[in-house]
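Complex record, two chains
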Amino acid sequence: MATLSLSAIGKSFGGADVIPGLDLDIAEGELVCLLGPSGSGKSTLLRMAGGFEMPDRGTVRIGGADVTRMPPEKRPTAMVFQSHALWSHMSVAGNIAFGLKLRRLPRAEIRSRVEAVLELVGLAGYGARKVWQLSGGQQQRVAIARALVLEPQILLLDEPFASLDQHLRERMREELRDIQQRLGITTLFVTHGQDEALALADRIVVLKDGRIEQADAPDVLYRAPATRFVAGFIGTMNFLACDIRRGRADHPLFAVPLALPDGPAELAIRPEALRLTPDAEGPVRVRRVTDYGSHVLADLETDDGERLKAHCPPEARPAPGQRMRLSARQLSAYQQGRRAEASPAHLREGALHA
Amino acid sequence: MSDAAIAVRPVRAAPRGGGLTGLLLVFLPVGLLAWLILYPILRAVIRTLVVQTGTGPALSLETYRFFFTDGYSLANLWLTLWVTALCAVLLLAVCLPIALYLRFAKSRIAALVQGLALFPMFVPSVILAYALIRTLGPNGAVDLVLNAAGLPKIASPYLTPAGPVIGLVWDNIPLTVLMLVAGLGNVSDNAVEAARDAGARPFALLRHIILPQIGNALLVVLSFTVLSIFSAFTLPYVLGPASPEMMGPFMQRTFTDVQDPRMAITQAVITFAICAGFGAFYVRSIARNREASR
């Protein structure tokens, strides 16, 4: 176990700054997810932590030691790749034992460590098989075992479950979380799956254009996104453009008092924070209804053509074309892309009706 | 029409003669193959085995017996095998580092190296042979430079076994590099990075990860190289020694100078048999490749 510290780290490709300069500290045993859209620099950051990309500026420290110029083979890190990157000419045990053999450990120790790590990932007895004889999930477990057997101080995972189906992905991430907590290994995990990040991480770092938009615990990130980008990127968010005039939003649906300076703003409401009530005189009309089993997603349209999404319980499924009245349990406001420190008092007490 | 009528309508059978159409389509190329390749081979083999006696044609292994008991013929065969083996080893030694560099280098120099490696492909063998004579031959460019520097002349490889070796290696570099680069394309960046991550330094990476993963490509390269060099004529004829000589010039001289076509055909059949052995090796490599990629 060790800390991982990236200080003022930057990387450019072909003159373009992929990561202009970024600071990130990961505590011992912490699992941090790097989340962001394609091209946000999350894989580059991970590869710099692993030594596969040399940063143009800044430092990488592991357990306080500067490893910035150290090649991957000398770093106390282990990486799990999206493509598994297993060596098809070797058996499962051969793949896992490779790093141990390079370290010239005694055969008996190699065998016992390989067996132990296969047991850990639930593949006991699979050592003699060729990797191509395994399913995708089993191959990914071998890749994790290969990384863990080296007892790295830092575990790096680059979208390891991207090629797996939904059910397997959910099971694998639970297993990974279980193993990570049991071993207490410091982990940096790259994903562009929000559900994966929310389910796994102690802390999520949202990246945009090589910069950290927000780094927080999953619940904080979801419930109090610091920027409009994070609010829109994590989960679904309804944004309603309005103006603040004399401490009040002028939106026709939610004319809420907000302690904000006058100027353009956006009200942000999660679909699950909206409640629909049938009302022939209501301000919105249901355009489409999508049933997700656990809930129903209603696509709504105001008379001005503004669109919103709202969750409803399956038993209260609205009909397309039906007019509705809206109420919001939670609402936040963004000005100039940043979350405004506004908290409408009456929202704390109950729902805001429109 | 009722539903019942639709239900009982018989399923129309596939038109007959589909297989015949397929055979007709391949008839022309297969016929050409049989006429231009298989028939001459068969005819050549028969000509070496059948002799005309006073009582009519008779089976005879006389020419083969002569070849395998004649010291000069065997010396030529051994020289050909030696040149082929040496060229194959040298080609792998020269081309594997180039191919590795081209596969993994990210610098702009890689394009220049690739251009240089492929350049011999565009130079005809006979031009190459005379260029090598003018460069490495007696009083060639190298000798002139050494002389100007006050240094002794080099022992020229011209008309020695080293001559065709140099020429054949130079001539076969492009194809070998291309085949190796194609083989290395199957080694993913992630597989290499995973090995480095596990602690593999360059030599361990090459030995334990890259070479095993391009094993089939190496076999293909080896087969192609051997086939091409074993049956080479121009470079051994122009650059090689007069005695012993490689099988290509040996056949030509037996046919035109010695005017013994039956013996020349025997030499050709023996050469063909050895090449066919490597050909079988190549086909087996391809079959293994396909099996592995399933």
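Note: Chain B has two domains: 24-60, 71-293.
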